[in-house]
Amino acid sequence: MLKGYVINLDQRPDRLQRFNQHPDAKYFTRFSAIDKQVISALGEYHVFDTQRYLSVDNRPVTAGEIGCTLSHIGCWKLIAEDDQLNDEDFVVIAEDDVELVPRFSLYAQKLIESLQDPKESQIHFVVLQKLGLHSQAPFEVATETTTNFVCQKLAYAHQCIRDGSSLYLRGCPR
User: Fold this and answer.
1) Alpha-carbon separation of residue 8 from 11, 54, 62, 72 (angstroms)
2) pLDDT digit string (tens) for 72-125?
3) What is the pTM (predicted TM-score) of this model?
4) Could you read off the pLDDT of 112-123 as tens digits, one per residue?
């Protein structure tokens, strides 16, 4: 069964309402996003290594980026603590401004099944939709290796509408 989380700010029920209009939204549980206002009030450097970010990206990190990052980490924590998930399971994580393609759950389930093949056991993270990763083919797959994970990019025949839109599968770390 497909399982997912949708990250949504408390003050943006309109985004959640739009996301929930898709028939496959029923597979997603809302995760209350960490608001940049809270990050700013606490002081960015208290909750995030802002100096390390600056040294890596050559620019200061924003409170919104920190809130977004911590929201995704919060979803990963829920996945890691979910006793109903097995080590080979994947969970979908979406931001609320993502527009799911028609028959999203069918495509996602087929991809998850292919990733559960023992030959693909090294894959723990799969980008499904991100600005700049689009194609005309619904199942065009490219593999990229980094020091931390192998990433398969699945591109659908549409573009992300907003910068920062994100949709991906996350393996279940144990």
Assistant:
1) 8, 27, 18, 11
2) 889 989 998 999 988 778 899 999 988 888 888 888 888 888 777 776 666 666
3) 0.76
4) 887 777 766 666
Question: 């040294």: which residue's tokens?
Answer: 55
Report the 3 state secondary structure along 86-150.
CCCCEEEEEECCCCCCCCHHHHHHHHHHHHCCHHHCCEEEEEEEECCCCCCCCCEEEEEECCCCE
Q: What angle do CA 99, 19, 97 make, to 5 degrees?
A: 55
Report angle CA 102, 108, 110 to the nearest 5 degrees.
115
Cβ contact 31:92 at 8 Å: no
Q: Find where tokens 């030959």 sit.
A: 119
* Predicted confidence (pLDDT) per residue in 41-62, tens digit: 988 888 888 998 888 878 898 9
Cβ atoms within 10 Å of 1's Cβ, excluding its own: 7
Instruction: Please tell me the number of Cα atoms within 13 Å of 68 on its side-chain side.
Output: 13
Structure confidence at residue 98 (pLDDT): 87
| Cα dist from 85 to 2, 92, 116, 137, whole Å | 11, 13, 13, 30
- CA torsion sign, 162 to 12 to 76 to 43? positive
Q: In 3D, which of 74, 97, 76 has the Cα closest to residue 16?
A: 97
